[in-house]
Amino acid sequence: MQLQLVTGDITGMICESVDAIVNAANSTLLGGAGVDGAIHRAGGGAILRECRELRRTTYPDGLPAGDAVATTAGRLGCRWVIHTVGPVHDPAIDRSATLRSCYLRSLAVADRVGAGAVAFPLISAGAYGWPKDDAVLQALTAVRAADTAVERVVLVLYDQATFTLAQEVLAAHPVG
Ligand code: APR
């Protein structure tokens, strides 16, 4: 598997080069701010309609933290949006396994739909308060541990500072 770090908006050009982008959603699946807001805005109403149907059928109580589910990407340039719910950071509770599960479950969903290239934002590193360096480390750890047919994973960092930080974390944790 190839792992790439890029800077930018996950709803931008990156969409054209991957099969699926991952949404940093919340359990309601009914949208929000950050990545969630950007994806619903750019993808259009079809995504929300599918999310509402998922809540009516499969997830009446909401998508649990650490789980993932795919919908259409609507007007976005990729084929699927894979929605995952990150854990809220709490220094008193170690929720890192749940954060890694977001990546592992999203890759399992990608395998199920046949997505060969997947772009992730930095799950939980925004509104959910996860320290960015550890958020990158958890992403890296999970992606490297994943038993998946996905050939290319792109980690999309929203700003240059986070991109540089991610490069440093990657350099400090070489493969193998
Ligand atoms: N493209 C790429 N990355 C983005 C974008 C974007 N358009 N917008 C924000 N980010 C970055 C943030 O800077 C952060 O590093 O994505 C990371 C995750 O931030 P959030 O979107 O706030 O996601 P999260 O921390 O998981 O919180 C999820 O926020 O928007 C609500 O509905 C969402 O309740 C959920 C919560």
In short:
With 176 residues, the protein is of the alpha/beta class.
What is the topological layout?
Layout (H helix, E strand, L loop, with lengths): L1 E6 L6 H4 L2 E6 L8 H10 L1 H13 L10 E5 L7 E6 L10 H18 L3 E4 L11 H14 L6 E6 L2 H13 L4
Parallel strand pairs: 1-6, 2-4, 2-5, 5-6
Antiparallel strand pairs: 3-4
Please tell me about this protein's structure.
- By secondary structure, the protein is of the alpha/beta class.
- Helices cover 41% and strands 19% of the residues.
- The chain has six helices and six strands; from the N terminus they run E-H-E-H-H-E-E-H-E-H-E-H.
- It has helices spanning 14-17, 34-43, 45-57, 96-113, 132-145, 160-172; strands spanning 2-7, 20-25, 68-72, 80-85, 117-120, 152-157.
- Strands 1-6-5-2-4-3 form a six-stranded mixed β-sheet, sandwiched between helices.
- A hairpin with a 7-residue loop joins strand 3 (68-72) and strand 4.
- Helix 4 crosses helix 5 (132-145) and helix 5 packs across helix 6.
- The longest helix is centred in the middle third of the chain and has 18 residues, at 96-113.
- It is globular and about 45 Å long.
- The mean pLDDT is 97.
- Adenosine-5-diphosphoribose (APR) binds next to strand 2 and helix 2.
Mean pLDDT: 97
User: How many angstroms does the end-to-end distance come to?
Assistant: 13 Å
Helix-strand makeup class: alpha/beta
Q: Strand percentage, roughly?
A: 15-25%
Number of strands: 6
